[in-house]
Specification:
Length: about 140
């Protein structure tokens, strides 16, 4: 039986730029790196960066809604998003759902989000204003 998300592997086109972004700007913990890859941690999540010659920058307009959301505490949200804006990250979406969220791109165009909140909070908000056709698990 599945127990949870083990790790994410992201193909990157420039290892140095990606390490600067994920370790330097986002402050993920660098656990190991080598010529064509790196392992970082973010809480219990293990993130692998893998250099891939086929990887090309993908603009937000040319990609689908797939994105990776990271949890952040509410007291850190404003200062963290301010730092991202000062660094010139590209914003790909404005938040329209429950909880504070900031949507931005990494150097290769991977869609990322930082989010304040939990699934329980999201479901509670959706029970008040459900998405069209939304059905909830019965207790």
């Amino acid at each position: 039986m599945l127990q949870g998300l083990n790790h994410l592997t992201l193909a990157v086109s420039d290892m140095a730029a990606s390490l600067d972004f994920y370790h330097g700007l986002l402050q993920m913990d660098l656990q190991a790196h080598w010529e064509s890859g790196a392992y970082l941690s973010c809480g219990p999540l293990w993130l692998c960066l893998s250099l891939d010659a086929a990887r090309r920058f993908t603009s937000s307009e040319d990609s689908d809604y797939t994105h990776y959301a990271f949890t952040i505490d509410s007291q850190d949200f404003s200062s963290f998003t301010h730092r991202l804006c000062l660094a010139g990250v590209t914003i790909w979406k404005q938040n329209r759902s429950e909880g504070e969220s900031f949507y931005f791109l990494d150097p290769d165009g991977h869609k990322l989000e930082i989010h304040v909140g939990t699934l329980a909070q999201r479901l509670s908000a959706c029970r008040k204003v459900p998405y069209q056709g939304m059905v909830f698990k019965k207790n």
